[in-house]
Amino acid sequence: MKTVGLTYDLKTDYAFKKDDPPDANAEFDHPSTIDVIDSAIQSCGFKVKRIGNVSNLLEHIDHLDVDIVFNISEGIGGRNRESQVPVLLEMAGIPFVGADALTQGLTLDKIIAKKIFIAEGIPTPRFFEARNSAELINTNHFKFPLIVKPRFEGSSKGLSENSRVENKEQLLKQVEFLINTYKQPALIEEFILGEEFTVAIVGNDPPEVLPIVQIKIDGDLKLNEKFYTFARISSDRLEYVCPAPVASDLQETISALALKTYQAVECRDFGRIDFRVDNKQRPYVLEINPLPSLSTEDVFMMIAKVIGISYPEMIGRILNSAFKRYHLTQ
Ligand SMILES: Nc1ncnc2c1ncn2[C@@H]1O[C@H](COP(=O)(O)OP(=O)(O)O)[C@@H](O)[C@H]1O
Ligand SMILES: [Mg+2]
Predict the structure, then answer these.
(1) Mutate to test the pocket of ligand 1, among 147, 230, 286, 298 (most ligand atoms within 8 A of CB)
(2) pTM confidence score
(3) What residues flank ion ligand 2 with Cβ within 5 A?
(4) CATH code of the domain containing 173
(5) Domain that holds residue 228
(6) pLDDT tens across 146-196, in order?
(7) What is the best residue among 274, 291, 299 to mutate for testing ligand 1's pocket, by most ligand atoms within 8 Å of CB?
(8) Which stretches within 44-124 are classed as H helix?
(9) Atom of ligand 1 nearest to the CA of 227
(10) pLDDT tens across 42-94, in order?
């Protein structure tokens, strides 16, 4: 029987530092998510060895005794944090599930990712970067509203109702807040009024695009100025609707763009792409997540239900994609 190692970060293990914002551990997983992934892997016929975070991995890397690692670790810090586990596993020659270090790094940094989207002809909102507020002098060629996001965070970290700005004064204030609180440059994008979608993909050669999911906030699908803030994630004001109730030509456009994005950044085994679509039905890719949440409350598991498979079967598909890629047999 093959053994699957599990690398992850737990919300409960995070030690808050003095200057940390309240959402500092937002990307980490609940212990219950690790439990369900663990039992899902077991029910696929494997032994599971829990490794834990990158420090534990580093300590035990020479005697791991696993055939492959299922990695959902977010890493310690900085824009390369999600690359830390993959690069160690690569060094040690241990196969692992999911995108490699390069893809994790370039997608966590939303500006680098957007540069790749642009080079590949993938539509993404117009943007600029501010490393300090002095850089905001010449913004006249951008149309308000704008949205101010941290350059390399996920899980809506740093996003609140103040993130959408309507004028220069609000922009300046939010950029200063963000840079001081999150200790990184601000990414400023044109705010796309309209609707929001997210698309999950599983596998390689060819990857399978799953039915698209639409985001509903406060009961509305036409979100316009509404968006996904950190506070909304844990509230019941946000719902996922799958399959998305949109015309089939828009579904096809979004699915094709999701696949193109997955391939552009060389994502592997699984991933999720976030979209806004404006009121003229023009889609924009916001970002791609090579480490999307596998929590039972999240998008992947909702899709599993829609396509008629169980949670363990969804985990099994992801795992099998990696097995095939490495020519491993079960
Ligand atoms: N340009 C934009 N226009 C409108 N809403 C946006 C834009 N960028 C981000 N958002 C909103 O903020 C949310 C989080 O942004 P995203 O870029 O996906 O970062 P992350 O999910 O990593 O925090 C999106 O799901 C969306 O609701
Ligand atoms: Mg997102």
Answers:
(1) 286
(2) 0.95
(3) 274
(4) 3.30.1490.20
(5) 116-120+193-292
(6) 999 999 988 888 899 999 999 999 999 999 999 999 999 999 999 999 999
(7) 274
(8) 54-60, 84-92, 101-108, 110-119
(9) 27
(10) 999 999 999 999 999 999 999 999 999 999 999 988 899 999 999 999 999 99
